Amino acid sequence: MRSKYQIYLFAFILILTAIGIMSYKINVLGFPLFAGEEKSVWNIEAKVKFKGTGENAFISLALPDEQEGMSVYNPNASSPNYGFTTAQSEGYIRGEWAKRKVRGSQTLYYSIDVIIDEYFSPDYPKVYKKQYQIEASSIVIQASTAIMKDAYKHSSDDISMTARVISAFNKNETSQAVKMLNRKYIKNEKDLRDVIASLLEDKKVTLRRIGALKLVNGQRNVKLKPMLEVYEKGKWQLFDLKKGKVDKSEQLFIWQRGAVSLLDAEGVRDSRVSFSITQNVVSSRSAALLKGDEGQISLIDYSLFILPNESQNAFKHLLLIPIGALVVVLLRIFIGIKTSGTFMPILLALAFIQTELMPGITMFILVVSIGLVVRSYLSALNLLLVARISAVVIVVVGIMAMVAILSYKLGVKDAVNITFFPMIILAWTIERMSIIWEEDGAQEVLTEGGGSLLVAIVAYFAMTNSIMQFWTFNFPEFLLAVLGVIILIGRYSGYRLSELYRFAYMLKKDEK
């Protein structure tokens, strides 16, 4: 493969890799593309209340598991003086509190944070073994034969049959069979769910009894809503006992699955559980980082976000250097601007970020001007190159200290930041400009010095752009795309804009 095509292939691989990783972080991990995007974090708190009788207390609460489209984080049990553990029971998670000799009113809390994440899929198997199946009595089966015959006749699968059965219990004019079931067996929504579940399980429908919460901000002391999940064609479909099929957009969080009890209490009386829901709005980036904090996403767990804040702040500036390099490449190769040193403008731009632009430009011109005057005197001493540059470095340090002191005395506090200027680069710049002055004259010095300053200013605006600052730190893979673009530009061998201006006279002459 020819060298040119290898370079093109390599550059495009870098660019596509950057786009792929960024797309994954945005679409799957939930990272925002721009700063300021926000996301809702739902805090759900279960409150268990009971009265102690002086006996040893044991409280067991069904806890939520992961579910499609919702991520669960920060589980926290607030239970002073109680022992708390979690245990697996028939494939489901339960929280267990224990304490000896409990008396009086007691309150226990368990809370979680929930983030809606349409791309999240739990690791548990898609089909559960049926738990605590309630066998329907012969009376129920006999009374519901007509209901099930109608549902089976007017359905094509388990989903449509479930919808038909639920509809039969919610008609304005219900059948005699439904009236009998309502009268004898159904006192609340939980009873209705269990009756419908029994009828469907008799027809070999794979289902789960669940208790769900609708995510509405500010809810207090709410109970779980009894619902059903039916398995068909590789996924679970949620059913409301009044409305039928439930769309995902309704934002229902499933707290309890299976026919296991929500709350078991031993050694106490008057036990009950209620729930509160609070919506907190945080930045999308903070929400995405929760996954890394929980150790669920290795891409986040091995990223800059795990570093201490001091190191993160340092990298926020270092990662801007490639943006400055891209600006230098564009202005030098396509426009042909001359600079004093290849990457000196980047270092100047970094200094300008710390000092602000106008104070930085003023200090740069002042230091270089004084340095050139001192350098002209040193040239008369006929010093060797190394000694001369070392002397210039010392002079630059002295100039910077003098400018900082005088500026502080005059109340110009911005000038104190002059220490951010790269003194070695300044010394070498002064030496280089002095030699150019001697060999090519003052015009060439002004051209290169002005070019360096112009490129540094453009790089400063690129590096302080809020989008660039956000992308380089939150999406460091973006720099792979920058590298690919620089490699492609490196193959350019055409005219620069400055050269077109140079040869404009010749073109006019040829036209004549």
How far apart lie the N and C ends?
46 Å
Radius of gyration: 36 Å
Question: Spans with pLDDT under 50 lasting ≥5 residues?
Answer: 125-134
The assigned structural class equals alpha+beta
Query: What gross morphology would you assign?
Result: elongated
CATH level 1 name of the largest domain: Mainly Beta
Individual helix count: 19
Strand % is 15-25%
**CATH fold field value of the largest domain:** Immunoglobulin-like
Per DSSP E runs of 2 or more residues, the count of β-strands stands at: 14
Describe the 3D structure.
This protein is of the alpha+beta class and 512 residues long. 49% of the residues lie in helices and 22% in strands. It is built from 19 helices and 14 strands. It has helices at residues 3-27, 138-143, 145-153, 158-168, 176-185, 189-202, 284-293, 298-301, 309-318, 321-335, 344-355, 357-379, 385-409, 423-440, 442-463, 466-474, 478-489, 497-502, 504-511; strands spanning 38-53, 57-62, 70-78, 83-89, 92-99, 103-116, 207-214, 219-222, 225-232, 235-240, 244-245, 252-257, 263-266, 268-283. Strands 3-6-1-14-8 form a 5-stranded antiparallel β-sheet. A 5-stranded antiparallel β-sheet has the order 11-10-9-7-12. It is elongated. Mean pLDDT is 82; it is low at 125-134.
